[in-house]
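Example for tutorial group B:
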């Protein structure tokens, strides 16, 4: 049955010539697309296959049933005149899949290496502004334990840990521990997000600069610093135990106890 369904899907997708992408409009980066619909959720959309035929959620669900969804990718195009976005679903080539997998493995390897270098290092020249316009620099952190939590509004694991972050903040905010939630998303997007999701940390927006400085490419990432800026903890990439915040709390407790 699955084989029959796959053959049917393949036939539907490739039975006609591929559509000329140039007529769909300007090609959008995935994150530019997400930012656009965050700012204007009512932006009109069209969903097409490579042959120009439309598709819907039922079709996507069918792909998932035959475990073939990972072989597909979506591309985004903006018609500058109508401001309509077209989302094209196309099947990736075997070479494309291999290249993507190879790049991702190297990406992970580099990120893990960077985290090992961060651990034990002393951070300096940190400078960012919170969502309310207050600026923070090294002088504001000195003498305090500092947690930097990197996240963004479309990150499901980031959102999942926010209640625990709020709890941690509530327990230690009056014990000389500072908590910052840092995102590259802009203030407009984050303000809308915060109307739905509670986040009690000091929220910092538009902060791609600090992400780049520290080499943060996977989210969520938490970095814990001591009173002198030394990195005591950096969360793992895809930690299977999901116990990063528990480890962070143990370190905070120990630091406070030894004062």
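The residue assignment follows.
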């Amino acid at each position: 049955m699955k084989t029959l369904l796959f053959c049917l899907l393949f036939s539907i997708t490739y039975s006609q010539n591929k559509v000329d992408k140039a007529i769909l409009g300007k090609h959008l980066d995935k994150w530019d697309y997400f930012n656009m619909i965050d700012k204007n959720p009512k932006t009109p959309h069209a969903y097409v296959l490579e042959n120009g035929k439309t598709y819907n959620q039922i079709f996507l669900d069918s792909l998932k049933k035959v475990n073939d969804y990972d072989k597909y990718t979506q591309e985004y195009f903006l018609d500058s005149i109508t401001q309509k976005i077209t989302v094209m679903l196309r099947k990736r080539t075997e070479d494309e899949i291999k290249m993507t997998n190879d790049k991702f493995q190297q990406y992970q390897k580099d990120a893990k290496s960077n985290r090992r270098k961060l651990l034990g290092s002393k951070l300096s020249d940190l400078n960012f502004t919170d969502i309310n316009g207050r600026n923070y620099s090294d002088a504001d952190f000195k003498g305090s334990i500092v947690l930097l939590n990197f996240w963004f509004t479309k990150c499901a694991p980031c959102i999942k840990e926010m209640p625990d972050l709020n709890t941690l903040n509530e327990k230690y905010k009056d014990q000389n521990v500072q908590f910052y939630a840092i995102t590259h998303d802009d203030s407009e997007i984050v303000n809308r997000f915060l109307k739905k999701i509670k986040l009690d940390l000091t929220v910092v927006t538009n902060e791609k600069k600090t992400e780049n400085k520290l080499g943060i490419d996977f989210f969520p990432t938490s970095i814990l610093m001591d009173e002198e800026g030394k990195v005591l903890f950096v969360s793992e990439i895809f930690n299977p135990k999901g116990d990063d915040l528990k480890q962070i709390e143990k370190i905070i407790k120990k630091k406070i106890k030894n004062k």
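The CA atoms of residues 168 and 249 lie 7 Å apart. Compare this with the pattern of hydrophobic and polar residues in the output above.
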